[in-house]
Design goal:
The chain has a single domain, classed as 3-Layer(aba) Sandwich (Dihydrofolate Reductase, subunit A), CATH 3.40.430.10. The protein contains 4 helices and 12 strands. The strands form 3 sheets. Strands 5-4-3-6-1-7-10-9 form an 8-stranded mixed sheet, with helices on both faces. With 208 residues, it is of the alpha/beta class.
Length: 208
């Protein structure tokens, strides 16, 4: 495998947002939904075979607010994006100054041999930039069907580029915001780009 060759990787966004597309408050999730968190973990840690890994890209603030859960991400490598950090932050594997640098790292030797999927964990600016990338094929977006006080919102994306593929709704009673929001209704949406091409055995979607 040529060391300078670029090997495209699927880029996928994953998030949960409430009725007004809020995703955070003071650097934390505004809700506590164990089943949704488990869905998130199962999705981003899933790989096709032993020895493979997914690459998770985090904004600096998002990473620093999640240090207590980083040990839960099996089969994952972590890149933190920051223009100010001079060294790799605690529990992370790499630090990059910008999103293109992180994608290049994942898609060239030696990481290209190990990485299967690039997952975007947040924050807002990383979501915005990654949704415009030609390798971005899917957005996993869970609608938490309730109102929360948020100061951070999932960004708009081009609805002419993306379309909803499927939805999976489940409901377990009425909303109960504290201390466990497991009773909230959730509506999971799988949103994809319109056009597709195939790399290996995996079908990707891409922007024209």
């Amino acid at each position: 495998m040529g060391k300078d060759k670029v090997h495209p990787k699927p880029i996928r966004l994953i998030a949960a947002a409430c009725n007004d597309m809020g995703i955070g408050k003071d650097g934390q999730l505004p809700w506590n939904i164990p089943k949704e968190f488990q869905f998130f973990l199962d999705t981003v840690t899933s790989v096709s075979s032993p020895g493979k890994s997914n690459l998770l890209i985090w904004g600096r603030k998002c990473w620093l607010s999640s240090l207590e859960i980083t040990h839960l991400f099996r089969n994952c490598l972590h890149i933190v994006l920051s223009r100010t950090l001079s060294s790799v932050p605690k529990h992370a594997d790499y630090v990059c100054q910008d999103f293109p640098s992180a994608v290049e790292l994942a898609s060239t030797f030696p990481l290209c041999n190990q990485v299967e999927t690039i997952w975007i964990i947040g924050g807002v600016e990383v979501y915005k930039e990654s949704a415009r990338h030609p390798w971005c094929d899917l957005i996993y977006l869970t609608h938490v069907m309730a109102d929360f006080d948020c100061d951070t919102y999932f960004p708009e994306f081009d609805r002419e580029v993306y379309e909803q593929l499927e939805t999976c709704e489940y409901c377990r009673g009425t909303a109960n915001h504290q201390p466990d929001d497991s009773s909230l209704s959730l509506d999971r949406k799988l949103i994809a780009c319109h056009d597709s091409f195939e790399i290996g055995q995996r079908l990707f979607m891409f922007k024209v």
